[in-house]
From TrEMBL:
Localization: Mitochondrion membrane
Transmembrane segments: 35-54, 66-89
Gene that encodes the chain: HIGD2A
Protein name: HIG1 domain family member 2A, mitochondrial
Residue stretches making up the HIG1 domain: 7-93
UniProt keyword Transmembrane present: yes
Classification via InterPro entries: Hypoxia_induced_domain (IPR007667), RCF1 (IPR050355)
Keywords assigned by UniProt, alphabetized: Membrane, Transmembrane, Transmembrane helix
Source organism per UniProt: Willisornis vidua
Length: 93
C-alpha cells in the first residue's frame, strides 16, 4: 500500500462564472440542456388548455389534458435527469 497525501476533505471546487445575471445564466443553462425549458413550456401549455377546457365544461377534454400534463411533466423530469447525467459525465473527463 502506497502512502500518499490524504484526499481533500473540503467540498469540490466548482467553476466560477463572473458576475452572471439572471438572463445570462438562463441562456447558458438553456444551451446546456434545451429540453428542460421545452418540457416546461409544454407542461404549462397543456395545463392551460386543460384548465380552459374545464372552465368551459368540456370534462372529457379536461381529463385528457390533465393526463397529458402528467406525461409532459415526466418528459421534463427525464430531461432534467438526463442533463444532469451528461453534465456529471463531462465533468469527470
Amino acid at each position: 500500500m502506497a502512502a500518499g497525501p490524504p484526499p481533500p476533505l473540503g467540498p469540490p471546487v466548482l467553476p466560477a462564472f463572473p458576475e452572471e445575471g439572471f438572463g445570462e445564466k438562463f441562456m447558458r443553462k438553456t444551451r446546456e440542456n434545451p429540453l428542460v425549458p421545452l418540457g416546461c413550456l409544454c407542461t404549462v401549455g397543456v395545463l392551460t388548455y386543460g384548465l380552459i377546457s374545464f372552465k368551459r365544461g368540456n370534462t372529457r377534454q379536461s381529463q385528457l389534458m390533465m393526463r397529458a400534463r402528467i406525461l409532459a411533466q415526466g418528459f421534463t423530469f427525464a430531461a432534467l435527469l438526463g442533463g444532469m447525467a451528461v453534465t456529471a459525465l463531462k465533468s469527470r473527463q
